[in-house]
Amino acid sequence: MYATDRQARSLYLRDPMYSAPKLAWNYLRYYLTAMNGKGHGMHSPFVFRLILDVLNNRAGYVAPPEVEQLRQELLRDQTFLEIEDLGAGSRTGAHKRRTVSAVASHAVKPPKYGQLLYRIARHFQPETIVELGTSLGLTAAYFAKAVPGCAVYTIEGSAAVHEVALRNFERLQVREVHPILGSFDEQLPELLRRLPAIDLGFIDGNHRYEPTLRYFLRMLPRCHNDSILVFDDIHWSAEMEQAWKEIQEHPRVRCSVDLFFIGLVFFREEFREPRHFTVRY
């Protein structure tokens, strides 16, 4: 059962985001208790293949180096941006005036997870991808390069960051990306009205309980048996952990995989009973 709005507000007021020591302790606990990342003892063929072929990259998917080369340039870019932060902020503190370098350091998924998202898209070959939180555009570029010809719709709330992403898409020559400027609450319903289905969704950009559940429920009618939803920073705070727990408990969710910094949700009917896995990554 979903928490009430009052409970959600209470979670947020008590612990808007975990401190670095608390997060480190939680990660240590995850690392020591999670299933090993080699697939040993895994009885689900689907998750076993996911671990071997995607997490461990037995399939040998090679991410295009130009995306990481651009990341290194962005990490050196000291241009200041005036940022409208419509989400829950960042762990380092969301200041309105930030450099491109700071955004690249703190608001963009690091290479390990950016390349994992590339491998997920490459492995499952989605035709339609929806991303909430474009940031500088690196993840959307990875998606587009993983599946040439797919349609990647990505929404960003900050006009300044959106403009940088547009230049990056042009630089990387990813024509399949459709950038959308505006708040998720305004732009997502309109986008969903035009899309018959979501094959892969990446929810990153508003790390709070109620918005995370709201985006999940809005995307749900467009999800099908083979759809995948990826949630970022599921252990970022008490309320994000609560949101992740309630997403796992939704009756349409048949399988979830907790990788600590991101969570994967599957709707595959081959899971006759819901199965939830925590895997070391």
Produce the secondary structure layout.
Blueprint: H1 5-14, H2 20-33, H3 45-55, H4 65-75, E1 80-82, E2 97-99, H5 100-106, H6 111-124, E3 128-132, H7 138-146, E4 151-156, H8 159-172, E5 177-181, H9 184-194, E6 200-203, H10 209-219, E7 228-232, H11 238-249, E8 255-258, E9 262-266, E10 275-278
Parallel strand pairs: 3-4, 3-6, 4-5, 6-7, 8-10
Antiparallel strand pairs: 1-2, 7-9, 8-9
Helix pairs in contact: 6-7, 10-11
Name the shape in a single word. Answer: globular
CATH class: Alpha Beta
CA-atom Rg in angstroms = 18 Å
Name the CATH superfamily classification: Vaccinia Virus protein VP39
CATH level-3 fold name = Rossmann fold
Instruction: State the end-to-end distance.
Output: 29 Å
Order of helices and strands: HHHHEEHHEHEHEHEHEHEEE
β-strand percent reads: 15-25%
Number of domains: 1
Word description of this protein:
- By secondary structure, the chain is of the alpha/beta class.
- The chain has a single domain (5-278), classed as Vaccinia Virus protein VP39 (Rossmann fold), CATH 3.40.50.
- The chain is 44% helix and 16% strand.
- The chain is built from 11 helices and 10 strands.
- An 8-stranded mixed beta sheet has the order 5-4-3-6-7-9-8-10, with helices on both faces. Strands 1-2 form a two-stranded antiparallel sheet.
- α8 (159-172) links the parallel β4 and β5.
- The chain is globular, with a radius of gyration of 18 Å.
- 39% of the residues are buried.
Keywords:
281 residues; two-stranded antiparallel sheet; single chain; Rossmann fold; 11 helices; 10 strands; eight-stranded mixed β-sheet; alpha/beta
